Amino acid sequence: QVQLVQSGAEVRKPGASVNVSCKASGHTFTNYYVHWVRQAPGQGLEWMGAINPNGGSTSYAQKFQGRVTMTRDTSTSTVYMELSSLRSEDTAVYYCARDYISSFDPWGQGTVVTVS
Amino acid sequence: QSALTQPRSVSGSPGQSVTISCTGTSNDVGGYNYVSWYQQHPDKAPKLMIYDVNKRPSGVPDRFSGSKSGNTASLTISGLQADDEADYYCCSYGGSSLYVFGTGTKVTVL
Q1: CA distances (Å), B65 to each of B14, B52, B69, B85, in order?
Q2: What's the rounded mean pLDDT across residues B37-65?
Q3: If you average pLDDT over residues A44-69, what whole number do you get?
Q4: Is A104 an interface residue toward B (CB < 8 Å)?
Q5: How far is A14 from chain B (nearest CA, A)?
Q6: Do A102 and B51 touch (CB under 8 A)?
Q7: Nearest CB to A59 within list B3, B91, B97
Q8: Secondary structure, 3-state, B77-88
Q9: Strand runs labelled E in B1-110
Q10: Distance (Å, rounded) from C-alpha A14 to C-alpha A69?
Q11: Averaged pLDDT, A70-94
Q12: Which of A12-16, A108-112, B96-100 has the lowest mean pLDDT?
């Protein structure tokens, strides 16, 4: 079955960067965009951006332009999301999700990033 | 892009129906038939319930239905069950490869 498995929890100090990985299996990796969505504690979902594994083109929400970088490694079917210049407001659960006809399905299990 | 507007909470008794609205603009909800809905139980990843305004993925009960009129999309849950108690989020394509989520609605089964 299609599955996305994310890397484990991270703790960073303000000003640092974090890199979260998302390994895909069960489908042809280069055929589907991968999106990143985050959720701060007690808050709603926030779309951060997406990457096309076929070629590596990206689109980012304006809020994260300049601070987020999404990349992929086709040899391992893994996408990466790096967020830099971290601040306390970036403390959140970060999810990757496969594109499914302009929706998101399935989702990874989430990665907790704590900035403190 | 601003978040789509959803009611903070809705509630209903088992067996009843509830409807959640999702209001955007002509640049997102009103401009594209790419509205999706997600169910999220506490401490779980979201689950796709509706895509393309009114289509259900395999495995989602037909008690869940979606619609759209103008800049407002809606999710209706019929025959409310205890397990439907969760947070629900709408999401719309906003053009230029960008997406925007709704503010989220907590559904309570009385």
Answers
A1: 17, 11, 14, 16
A2: 97
A3: 97
A4: yes
A5: 25
A6: yes
A7: B97
A8: ECCCCHHHCEEE
A9: 9-12, 18-23, 35-40, 47-50, 64-69, 72-77, 86-93, 99-101, 105-109
A10: 18
A11: 98
A12: B96-100
